[in-house]
Specification:
The chain folds into 2 domains: 155 residues, Fructose-1,6-Bisphosphatase, subunit A, domain 1 (Fructose-1,6-Bisphosphatase, Chain A, domain 1), CATH 3.30.540.10; 142 residues, D-Maltodextrin-Binding Protein, domain 2. The protein has 9 helices and 13 strands. Strands 1, 2, 3, 4, 10, 11, 12 and 13 form an 8-stranded mixed β-sheet that branches. The protein has a 5-stranded mixed β-sheet with strand order 7-6-8-5-9, with helices on both faces.
């Protein structure tokens, strides 16, 4: 992929982040999400790419824009698989909580897992722990492996987990090992990236979250040298049938990085909406707005942090 696309992708996440940030703390999830989707789609229209959404806001009958299968871009450039979450953390934004982001991932056509909007059981680790953990291993085995690789005592290891009723047993297992836990309300992608981010204070992500978020996080972790392992967790027969149509035949397969992202020609971009572990949120100034973004390439493992100042006359519509 042309590395010059990276800045275009960041412009798209910046536009979505600024547009949704106006809704921070106002308790209106739908308006915040709609603002992000509208802004991102508008930004896509001027990017020279022939993109197809493989991870988006849902399937065509569920999402009016940025739906799975939608074509985006000018149509002039390279054929790309596009995975987006214009507002990762709609509830977070509505509440004004930390770690809402606008995120984008891209790779050559046919190289990102095309997954339905279902759940995924997953674990994520940073570079130091790649190859040391296994989705099929016990919680105790994985936490001991992480402690050994990081040179920590078990009670010093920090696990990030979505705060959901389905994780009661998992949380109890982690506590039995003596490890620390950071529970998060939402922010599945930020949680998966945290173990690969220096100074995040997080060593491993465990638990069941969104499958689309798992694919997007896999692109980011491929850029960071980390690892995601996952297994789809279908809630009903309809989701299985949709998965079949997307080419998924082994419903119990343990998905490794090579299954989620099939080559190194991948990029990831994100812009903070609210302050978080990785990025600062949008700040509105007297003459415009300030954004903080991250953009990464898997091929070179280059990570760029971008602080941008946007003047009011050039801010996206919202």
């Amino acid at each position: 992929m042309d590395r010059n696309l990276a800045l275009d992708f960041v412009r798209a996440t910046e536009a979505a982040a600024i547009s949704s940030a106006y809704w921070m703390g106002k308790g209106d999830e739908k308006s915040a999400d709609h603002a992000a989707v509208e802004a991102m789609r508008k930004a896509f229209s001027i990017i020279d790419m022939d993109g197809t959404i493989v991870i988006g806001e849902g399937e065509r009958d569920e999402a009016p824009m940025l739906y799975i299968g939608e074509r985006v871009g000018s149509g002039k450039g390279m054929k790309l698989d596009i995975a987006v979450d214009p507002l990762e953390g709609t509830t977070i934004t509505a509440r004004g909580d930390p770690n809402a982001m606008s995120v984008f991932a891209a790779a050559p056509a046919g190289t990102l897992l095309n997954a339905p909007d279902t759940y995924m059981d997953k674990l994520a680790v940073g570079r130091e722990c790649v190859g040391a953990v296994d989705l099929d291993a016990s919680v105790e085995e994985n936490l001991n492996a992480v402690a050994e690789k990081l040179g920590k005592e078990l009670e010093e290891v920090t696990v990030i987990i979505l705060d959901r009723d389905r994780h009661k047993e998992l949380i109890e297992d982690v506590r039995k090992c003596g490890c620390r836990i950071r529970l998060i309300r939402d922010g599945d992608i930020a949680g998966a990236l945290a173990p690969a981010i220096e100074d995040s204070g997080v060593d491993i992500l465990l638990g069941i979250g969104g499958a689309p978020e798992g694919v997007i996080a896999a692109v980011a972790l491929k850029c960071l040298g980390g690892e995601v392992q996952g297994r789809l967790k279908f809630r009903n027969e309809d989701e299985k049938q949709r998965a079949k149509k997307m080419g998924i035949t082994d419903f119990d397969k343990k998905l490794m990085m090579k299954d989620l992202v099939k080559n190194n020609e991948a990029m990831f971009a994100a812009t903070g909406v609210t302050d978080g572990t990785i990025l600062k949120g949008v700040q509105f100034l007297s003459d415009g707005a300030k954004t903080h973004s991250i953009v990464m390439r898997a091929k070179t493992k280059t990570v760029r942090l971008i602080e941008a100042h946007h003047k009011f006359e050039h801010l996206p519509d919202y």
